[in-house]
Design goal:
Layout: E1 5-14, E2 17-27, E3 32-36, H1 43-50, E4 60-68, E5 71-72, H2 80-86, E6 87-90, H3 102-112, H4 118-131, H5 135-138, H6 151-164, E7 169-173, H7 181-194, E8 199-203, H8 207-213, E9 216-221, E10 230-236, H9 237-242, H10 247-253
Parallel strand pairs: 3-8, 3-9, 6-7, 7-8
Antiparallel strand pairs: 1-2, 1-4, 4-5, 9-10
The protein binds adenosine-5'-triphosphate.
Adenosine-5'-triphosphate (ATP) binds next to strand 2 and helix 1.
Organism: Catenuloplanes niger
Pfam family, one: ABC_tran
InterPro entries: AAA+_ATPase, ABC_transporter-like_ATP-bd, ABC_transporter-like_CS, P-loop_NTPase, PstB-like
Length: about 260
């Protein structure tokens, strides 16, 4: 079930370097939110703070509060592995397990969670591949390696793998940046469809993509190198792209900087 994500005064550090400062935003369930802004403003850092991936780096830490439907995901009692299962992530480069079959790629997370019954795995694989708009292309070669698919198909396979465990939130870090325009449109169609079931947060450098797929857009920026990234403006996508409230947002989306 899709859940609401709320960040309050979030700071994230790499050692002593503060990469983002005071980020607060609410992301409603079953919406798509785009994170945009110039390189180095902390979009990926913020995204990785949301599923506690940031802290896997040595000396990296997060301050502030991040909740999933009111539950603080940084609470001492929270199981980090469970957080990462509930908040799935799709990366820039498609990263299927290369020697694993298409089928095994999709059900890898379910198996890790202890699901062993063949009929359950088969049903979940078909459902996830259908949801990822990939079923028709792979249904006759489920036992072939995932690495044999095209880049766009591999990315849809990674999305199928992510949604197979029924996460509550799906994070996507520039999921189309390694793809051609046709594969990019296929992923955008998919994102639109998946928001019926999940809360989706996507980092993108592509303004048209943000405008096409998202309901809400968050614009991040930095004052100068070495300063932390900040959330400058967060609003309905239509407003951000037609009539932003802050001059810096307008300058960025019209290509005057960044
Ligand atoms: N592993 C790391 N160690 C130290 N500093 C890092 C690390 N990863 C990122 N940073 C720094 O944190 C800041 C924010 O980086 P981040 O990757 O979150 O920005 P971004 O907005 O996603 O950039 P891009 O659009 O180029 O991907 C940058 O100054 C970056 O150099």
């Amino acid at each position: 079930m899709a859940k609401r994500v709320e960040a309050t005064n979030v700071n994230a550090f790499y050692g002593s370097f503060k990469a983002i400062e005071n980020v607060s935003m609410v992301v409603e369930p079953k919406t798509v939110t785009a994170l945009i802004g110039p390189s180095g403003c902390g979009k990926s850092t913020f995204l990785r703070s949301i599923n506690r991936m940031h802290e896997v780096l040595p000396n990296a830490r997060v301050e502030g509060t991040l909740t999933l439907d009111q539950e603080n995901i940084y609470d001492k009692h929270v199981d980090v592995t469970a957080v990462r299962r509930l908040i799935g992530m799709v990366f820039q480069r498609p990263n299927p397990f290369p020697t694993m079959s298409i089928f095994d790629n999709v059900v890898a997370g379910l198996k890790l969670n202890g699901v062993t019954k063949k009929s359950v795995l088969k049903e979940a694989a078909e459902k996830s591949l259908r949801s990822a708009n990939l079923w028709d292309e792979v249904k006759d070669r489920l036992e072939k390696p995932g690495a044999g698919l095209s880049g766009g198909q591999q990315q849809r396979l990674c999305i199928a793998r992510t949604i197979a465990v029924e996460p509550q939130v799906v994070l996507m870090d520039e999921p189309c940046s390694a793809l051609d325009p046709i594969s990019t449109l296929a992923i955008e169609d998919l994102i639109f469809k998946l928001k019926d079931r999940f809360t989706i947060i996507i980092v993108t450098h592509n303004m048209q993509q943000a405008a096409r797929v998202s309901d809400r857009t968050a614009f991040f920026s930095i004052d100068k190198t070495g300063d932390p990234g900040r959330l400058i403006e967060y609003d309905d996508t239509q407003k951000i792209f037609s009539n932003p409230s802050v001059k810096r947002t307008e300058d960025y989306i019209t290509g005057r900087f960044g």
